[in-house]
Write a structure and sequence with these properties.
single chain; alpha/beta; 10 helices
Length: 233
C-alpha cells in the first residue's frame, strides 16, 4: 500500500482561529496535522514573525507595513488571546507535539538568513521544512544544505535539471489546478515527491490522493486528516 499522504495545515487552522497565530497552529496540531505551514515576515528590528501579507491591514486593521513596525509595536495590536507570534514561539509550540513539523513559507529571500538562525539556535533543524519560489529556496539551500525544501512551481513543465541539481528539493509544489496524472508521473520519474495546495473540498482531496499526490495542504485540516485516513485505510 502507498505510504500515507502528508497532511499540511495551511496557516494553522484558519476555520477555527485567525491564521498564523498560536491558537491556529495548536488547533491544527490537535487535529492531526503532520506539518503546519506558516508564513514568515521580518519586523523593522529584524525579528521573524508569522504573517502572510506585507501589511497588517487585512488581519490586524492596521495599514502599516510589517517592515516598518518593531516587535514591541506589534504587541500594541494584541487582544486577549490573540497576537502576532514570533517564529521562535511557534517553533516551541510545534516542538511540544511529537513528530510534528513546521513548514516555513518564504515568499522572497530576505527573511531566509535570520529565519534559519532562529531555527538553528533552538536546535529545530530536523523539525522544519521550507516552501517557496526559486529565489527564496536557493537562499535556504545555501544556508541549510540538508533542509527539506518544497519548490513552489506554477508551470506544467518541470524545472530544468540544472536547477533541480542545485536546489535538491524533496517536493515539487504546484497548485492543485495543475495536477493531473501526467504531472504526477513526471515528478515521480524525476525522483521527487509531489505536494500541492490549497485543497479544501473533500472531492478534490480524494482526487489528489487517487492521482498519487504525496502531500496535501489545506485550510480544513480536520477534514483532510479524516479523508486521508479513510482513503488509505
Amino acid at each position: 500500500m502507498k505510504s500515507r499522504v502528508r497532511a499540511v495545515a495551511h496557516r494553522g487552522d484558519p476555520y477555527l482561529h485567525r491564521e498564523n497565530t498560536l491558537p491556529a497552529v495548536s488547533a491544527a496540531l490537535a487535529a492531526g496535522a503532520d506539518a503546519v505551514e506558516v508564513d514568515v515576515q521580518l519586523t523593522r528590528d529584524g525579528v521573524p514573525v508569522l504573517l502572510h501579507d506585507r501589511t497588517l491591514e487585512r488581519l490586524w486593521n492596521d495599514q502599516r507595513q510589517i517592515n516598518r513596525v518593531t516587535l514591541d509595536q506589534l504587541a500594541e495590536l494584541a487582544t486577549p488571546g490573540l497576537r502576532i507570534p514570533t517564529l521562535a514561539e511557534t517553533l516551541q509550540t510545534v516542538a511540544a507535539t511529537d513528530g510534528a513539523r513546521l513548514m516555513i513559507d518564504l515568499d522572497d529571500s530576505a527573511p531566509a538568513a535570520v529565519t534559519w538562525q532562529v531555527v538553528s539556535e533552538l536546535g529545530m533543524e530536523s523539525r522544519v521544512a521550507f516552501c517557496g519560489p526559486v529565489v527564496a529556496m536557493l537562499a535556504v539551500r545555501e544556508l541549510a544544505p540538508d533542509a527539506e525544501i518544497s519548490l513552489t512551481w506554477k508551470r506544467l513543465q518541470l524545472p530544468k535539471q540544472r536547477l533541480l541539481a542545485e536546489l535538491r528539493p524533496s517536493y515539487l509544489n504546484p497548485p492543485f489546478g495543475l495536477v493531473d496524472d501526467r504531472l504526477v508521473a513526471s515528478v515521480h520519474d524525476a525522483g521527487l515527491g509531489l505536494a500541492t495546495w490549497t485543497v479544501d473540498l473533500r472531492r478534490t482531496m480524494r482526487r489528489m490522493i487517487a492521482l498519487g499526490v504525496d502531500s496535501l495542504t489545506s485550510n480544513r485540516i480536520a477534514l483532510l486528516r479524516r479523508t486521508i485516513d479513510q482513503q488509505q485505510a
